[in-house]
UniProtKB/TrEMBL annotation:
Single GO molecular function: 5'-deoxynucleotidase activity
Keywords: Hydrolase, Metal-binding
Organism name: Rubellimicrobium mesophilum DSM 19309
Coiled-coil stretches noted in the UniProt entry, renumbered to this chain: none
GO cellular component: cytoplasm
Protein name: HD domain protein
Domain of life the protein comes from: Bacteria
Keyword Lyase included in the entry's annotation: no
Residue intervals of the HD domain: 7-174
Length: 187
C-alpha cells in the first residue's frame, strides 16, 4: 500500500508538454496512462515478438522516478540535460527508493521492467521507448507547436533527438508523423 500511495504522487508531477487542447501541462500520471493506451491502439505498429502486455507494464512504470526527479524534457535547456550522468544517477536512486517500497520479488520485477525500458535494447523496450518519444510530438502537433515554441525546437533537433528513437521502434509511424512535423516546420 505504501508503494500505491507513493505512486499517486506521479499525478502531481507536471510535464513540459501540454494537453492536446493546450489548456494546461499534462501530469506524468496522465502521460503514463496515455502511453499505455498508445501501446494498445498502435499494437499493429510493433515489431515481431513484441508483447503489448509487457510494453503496457513498462509504460505504466517508466516515469515513476519522476516523483523524485521531476520531468526533464528532452528539449530542455534548464541545466539538467535529459540523459546526463547526473539525471541518470538521480533516476536510479529514485528507482531504488520507489521500487524498494514493494515486497522483494514484486519490487525486483518492477525494477527490472524499468531497467529494461531505460536500456531500450529488447523489442518490447524499443517499442515502448518509441511510443514515449512520439506521444509528446503528437501533443505538440495537436496544439499548434506547444512546447516546441517554448524551447525553440527545430526540425533538425526533432529528427535527431526524437525521430531516430521513434523510427527504431515504429518506422511506419515515424514516416507518418514526420510528414506532419514537416508541415509544421515548413520543410
Amino acid at each position: 500500500m505504501a508503494f500505491l500511495d507513493e505512486a499517486d504522487r506521479l499525478k502531481s508531477v507536471l510535464r513540459a508538454t501540454t494537453l492536446c487542447d493546450g489548456s494546461r501541462p499534462e501530469n506524468s500520471g496522465e502521460h503514463s496512462w496515455h502511453l499505455a493506451l498508445y501501446a494498445m491502439v498502435l499494437a499493429d505498429q510493433a515489431g515481431p515478438g513484441v508483447s503489448i502486455d509487457r510494453v503496457v507494464r513498462m509504460l505504466i512504470l517508466h516515469d515513476l522516478v519522476e516523483i523524485d526527479v521531476g520531468d526533464v524534457p528532452i528539449h530542455s535547456a534548464n541545466g539538467q540535460a535529459h540523459g546526463s550522468a547526473e539525471v541518470v544517477a538521480k533516476e536510479r536512486a529514485a528507482a531504488d527508493r520507489i521500487f524498494g517500497l514493494l515486497p522483494g520479488d514484486l519490487g525486483a520485477e518492477f525494477r527490472a521492467l524499468w531497467e529494461e525500458f531505460e536500456a531500450a535494447e529488447t523489442p518490447d523496450a524499443v517499442f515502448a521507448k518509441s511510443l514515449d518519444r512520439v506521444q509528446p510530438v503528437m501533443q505538440n502537433l495537436a496544439c499548434g507547436g506547444g512546447t516546441w515554441r517554448t524551447y525553440g525546437v527545430t526540425a533538425e533537433q526533432l529528427e535527431s533527438r526524437v525521430g531516430v528513437k521513434v523510427a527504431r521502434g515504429t518506422p511506419g509511424l515515424w514516416d507518418w508523423v514526420r510528414e506532419r512535423t514537416r508541415s509544421y516546420f515548413g520543410s
